[in-house]
Automatic annotation (TrEMBL):
Record-annotated Nitroreductase domain positions: 67-236
Presence of the UniProt keyword Nucleus in the record: yes
Subcellular locations according to the entry: Cytoplasm; Nucleus
Keyword Nucleus part of the UniProt annotation: yes
The protein, known as: Nitroreductase domain-containing protein
Similarity comment: Belongs to the nitroreductase family.
Cited PANTHER family: FATTY ACID REPRESSION MUTANT PROTEIN 2-RELATED
CDD domains: Frm2-like (cd02140)
GO biological-process terms attached to the record: cellular response to oxidative stress
Lineage: Eukaryota, Fungi, Dikarya, Ascomycota, Pezizomycotina
Keywords, sorted A to Z: Cytoplasm, Nucleus, Oxidoreductase
Gene Ontology terms for molecular function: oxidoreductase activity
GO cellular component assignments: cytoplasm; nucleus
Length: 263
């Protein structure tokens, strides 16, 4: 039994890559690659072990996407995908990402082209207004870098939804802001990773630390007063392919992950 999976654009299969055999979950399977279509062809020895084979392959693709996600700052005003696809990705994340008690308090606004540029003009103006001259001189070129990209997703939490949840659950109201942040971050991460799979580069910003910025955003796009701005996910086609703008270092996993009762 054989299925083909088209790979994300950033995974380039080697020419003539040899077949690989993996053995996981007690199922043996082979992966061969078709470099002309960038497709992984997965063959399982029987129909009965195909589902665990596909599950393992899907998990590995998911983990590869997680590993490849990066902060990319050299972005252009182009997008390899239609705005409708960007909308679809954001809508899918907003619909399916979990939230505490299924409160669904995350909100997103997608700005592209001139609207995106306007956002970063607000960022520049807010910095100029609030930062000492030296701070502004340091940050202004960064803001111009964000402005040079294609779009930004603004991420919000709707305080009204969270207040209702607090009223219903007074005993845990002190942890609700933390949970709202967790869920909002999950949304950001999913969209960040998905946009990269589609060939866009992204970086995550937090210019909402300035009230001037928050107010300009609220007025320009008619944001409801209960929506609190959490972050700005900037995206665009990478200037020079998708790669980390800064090298990432890793702390030893043994110090960070423990398992008890297993190996
Ligand atoms: C919660 C959170 C906040 C972040 N805030 C910013 C930020 O304000 N500006 C920025 O340029 N990057 C920001 N980043 C990106 C991190 O610096 C970056 O993810 C980290 O250094 C690892 O690099 P990588 O994204 O290339 O893997 C943030 C990331 C996270 C998860």
């Amino acid at each position: 039994m054989v299925i083909g999976i088209e790979l994300p654009k950033y995974i380039n299969l080697e020419d003539g890559a040899p077949s690989r055999t993996q053995d996981k979950h007690n199922s043996t399977f082979t992966i061969t690659t078709d470099t002309t279509t960038n497709t992984a062809i997965i063959g399982a020895t029987s129909a009965s072990n195909m589902s665990s084979t596909v599950a393992t392959a899907s998990t590995n693709f998911l983990l590869a996407a997680v590993e490849n996600r990066c902060s990319c700052y050299d972005l252009t005003k182009n997008s390899p995908i239609a705005d409708s696809r960007i909308r679809e990705i954001v809508e899918s994340a907003v619909k399916h990402t979990p939230s505490a008690f299924n409160v669904q308090s995350t909100r997103a606004i997608v700005l592209v082209k001139q609207e995106h540029e306007k956002l970063w003009d607000f960022g520049d103006a807010a910095l100029k207004e609030t930062m000492p001259e030296q701070g502004y001189a340091y940050l202004a070129p960064k803001v111009q870098g964000f402005r040079a990209a294609y779009g930004t997703v603004l991420w919000f939490e709707d305080q009204a939804a969270l207040d209702t949840l607090k009223e219903k659950n007074p005993a845990i109201q002190h942890v609700i802001p933390q949970w709202s942040g967790h869920s909002n971050g999950m949304h950001q991460f999913i969209v960040w990773t998905a946009l990269e799979l589609e060939g866009l580069g992204c970086n995550l910003q937090h210019y909402n630390f300035m009230s001037e910025f928050r107010e300009k955003v609220r007025n320009e796009w008619n944001i409801p007063p209960t929506w609190a701005l959490h972050s700005q996910l900037v995206f665009g086609t990478p200037v020079d392919g998708l790669k980390r703008s800064r090298e990432r270092t890793y702390l030893p996993l043994d110090d960070r992950v423990k398992i008890f009762g297993g190996k």
